[in-house]
Amino acid sequence: MIECRICGGLVEEFLDLGRQPLSDAFLRPADVDAEFFYRLAVGRCASCTMVQLTEEVPRERMFHEGYPYHSSGSSVMREHFTRTALSLVETELTAADPFFVEIGCNDGVLLRTVAEAGIRHLGFEPSGGVAALAREQGVRVRGDFFEESTAVAVRETEGPADVIYSANTICHIPYMDSLLRGVDALLSPGGVFVFEDPYLGDIIEKTSFDQIYDEHFYLFSVRSVQAMAERFGFELVDVRRLPVHGGEVRYTLARAGARRPAPSVARLLDRERVQGLTEPETLRGFASSVTRIRDDLVGLLRSLRDDGRTVVGYGATAKSATVTNFCGIGPDLVSFVCDTTPAKQNRLTPGMHIPVRPPDAFAAADPDYALLFAWNHAEEIMAKEQWFRAAGGRWILYVPDVRVL
Ligand code: SAM
Ligand code: TMP
Ligand code: ZN
To answer: Domain C-methyltransferase spans what residues (predicted)?
Structure first.
């Protein structure tokens, strides 16, 4: 029996994505034999409805000196984080000498704007390589995992935080009890804990099963986050859907009773209820759509290969580890994947060992088809690669279903 990491209830598995590698472990040929695998399956808590992985990968295996993901790699995301920072500065950081804390600040993409506004701030970032990039941007970084003990230490030396903010990190943290006790210790009485992560509603609507991988331990819904907040003495006071990363929600938590909840909370909760978002039948239906997408995608790639067409991958995303390993897509079907991230280039993708090349390899290869693994950045990528379609190339997408554009 698997116990819910939030409430201890029974977690019922609804999707098994099989044996999977670490999604961000891009390999040198010499590393291939020692590759780490785990079983990727996802379930729903029968008590609090939280959707979560059934197996936890130790955090040090994922987040370390060589963690390759750079948040600044997308211009759309850079703009998103600049706007988010400016809006928090204007609305929440107006007291004298406010203090802003970010959990998972990565390369400083958001925190640099807060620092430039002259606001006292601190980023928690355990992955040394990206933390160093953040420091080069002029932001203050503590090279630790955020958890109860490290949060308490910061509270003691720096005082309470007016805003604790986090993007694409809270859903990565299985140890929610320690995390939320840490937020409780560090947050000022009237402060807010704001976090944004992929939304279960979008994942179900788009069948974006590639949002499920080792780092994405939780798939949040408004219902499950509200229950989680209440369990730890907080209240969900605002929610806002965001278009980034294929669909996210920004949740705002305050101490229970400290703020009046915005109407958006009840609205989105109602919508989830009407959709049956967290009901077992909905999740089982999602699981069967995943199998259909796998069969369609593999069928298409095999027929293109048999017709002698060339196919390359675009964007060596963490998400693509789930797709390639679940579908069995290797270098025979996708000859290489291009990606702008230096730490991924000239390595092999996790599990399926497809070579990763810099973006100029894409134009040089001039392939017949490009499988868009970074579909969440489709607009940005298609805009900069307009030549590809103009030259007769075609994009392959698999979210929300398999299609050729
Ligand atoms: N906030 C950035 C963004 O939205 O692009 C980075 C997201 S990245 C997917 C997740 C980051 O969280 C990684 O840089 C990782 O090192 C960091 N992280 C993981 N666990 C953490 C924890 N307990 N405390 C602080 N950061 C953590
Ligand atoms: P993400 O979906 O987790 O943000 O990862 C996107 C990956 O795609 C990351 O490795 C960077 C890469 N990428 C490109 O190669 N070209 C681009 O134009 C963009 C936006 C991302
Ligand atoms: Zn639960």
So the answer is: 243-400
Q: Which ligand is nearest to the CA of 51?
A: 3
User: What does the pLDDT look like over 230-284, one tens digit per residue?
Assistant: 999 999 999 999 999 999 999 999 999 999 999 999 999 999 999 999 999 999 9
- CATH number, domain of 83, equals 3.40.50.150
pLDDT in tens, 280-313: 999 999 999 999 999 999 999 999 999 999 999 9
Is there an atom of ligand 1 within 6 Å of 376 CB? Answer: no
Domain count, the chain: 1
Ligand with an atom nearest the CA of residue 224: 3
Handedness of CA 341, 346, 351, 352 (dihedral sign): positive
| Helices and strands, counts by H and E, the chain | 14, 18
Q: Would 133 be classed as within a structural domain? A: yes
Determine the 3-state secondary structure of 162 from DSSP. Answer: strand
- Let me know if residue 331 belongs to a domain: no
Q: Which of 202, 203, 341 to mutate to test the pocket of ligand 2 (most atoms within 8 A of CB)?
A: 341
